[in-house]
Design brief:
By secondary structure, the chain is mostly helical. The chain has helices at about 1-40, 50-55, 60-80, 80-90, 95-125, 125-155, 195-210, 215-235, 240-270, 280-290. The chain has one domain. It contains 10 helices and no strands.
């Protein structure tokens, strides 16, 4: 029991640090872009066309994705499928280590890949990488703000709902999965719906895939990775199944739409002074890949 409490305390430290990292990462890109502009280079910025991109993120065909996120969650919660899925997984699951890795990865990967790719593109004078990174940063930021508002506004409790996860009756509370358990605008703003880990990772994967669909492997790597992190949230009992499904749908809608918008801007733009900078990214690529930054080193060969 003492070991379990220590593990939960450690998880809380990692969780808080990860949240700060996710919130700080977009701010880093503001500084980088400002410095590039001050140096005379015309660089893409993560806030480019933000207004029109927001309209596209939450309008048009994306309305279907957001509507599906809501309706699927209502169906899973009220039908009892959320509760049944949780109890089955927790009684069968043997992947606690996998779940812990997913918790950390869901914080680290989006916070590293999006601003890292943008910074690498600026530093190397690689316009395509800079545009792709800007798209990833914008989609990640919009996704995090959207998820934060929904978490606080709906106030859906996590599966344990503040109870001891090791208590004998930990899985005997089906009422926690239903909509009657919502506590809108409560004192705790980081609640369960939708899954921020899944949404953030999916938004970055979708933005890169949307920006560069000609590199199909970006989708084959990014989407399974995001879904794997979502699965880890379920296995670790951090989220209801519907939280993960909704996060994946919202992250895809925002990310892909933003990626396509930045690609149109890239295709219609003219080479700037940024394009003449030295290709640092080729030297950085092996180091980044060796440290696990799969999204940054990609662009060295483009």
């Amino acid at each position: 029991m003492a070991a379990g409490r220590r593990a939960r305390k450690a998880h809380g430290v990692v969780t808080n640090a990860g949240r700060r990292g996710l919130l700080a990462a977009p701010l880093l890109t503001l500084t980088l872009c400002s410095e590039a502009q001050a140096g005379g280079a015309k660089a893409p910025a993560p806030w480019d066309d933000l207004g029109s991109n927001l309209a596209a993120d939450f309008g048009g065909n994306n309305l279907y994705w957001h509507a599906a996120a809501v309706t699927s969650s209502v169906a899973l919660a009220e039908s009892g499928a959320d509760y049944e899925a949780r109890t089955w997984v927790q009684r069968q699951a043997r992947g606690r280590g996998f779940a812990d890795v997913c918790v950390v990865s869901g914080y680290v990967l989006p916070a590293v890949v999006a601003p890292g790719l943008y910074a690498a593109g600026l530093g190397a004078g690689d316009r395509k990488a800079a545009y792709a990174g800007a798209a990833a940063v914008q989609s990640l930021t919009v996704t995090l703000v959207t998820v934060g508002i929904l978490k606080w506004g709906l106030g859906r409790p996590y599966p344990n709902n503040g109870r001891d996860p090791y208590a004998p009756d930990a899985l005997d509370h089906p009422e926690d999965a239903r909509l009657g358990s919502l506590r809108p605008f409560g004192e705790h703003w980081m609640m369960a719906w939708p899954s921020g880990h899944t949404a953030a990772t999916m938004s970055v994967a979708a933005a890169l895939h949307g920006f560069a669909p000609e590199y199909g492997w970006l989708g084959w790597v990014g989407y399974p990775l995001a879904l794997g992190i979502g699965a880890g949230m379920i296995v670790g009992d951090h989220h209801w199944t519907s939280d993960v499904v909704a996060g994946a749908m919202m992250g895809h809608a925002i990310g892909y739409s933003t990626g396509r918008a930045f690609r149109r801007a890239f295709d219609g733009s003219k080479p700037s002074a940024l394009a003449s900078a030295y290709p640092v990214i080729r030297a950085v690529q092996p180091v980044v890949l060796a440290t696990g930054g799969w999204g940054v080193g990609v662009w060295g060969s483009l």
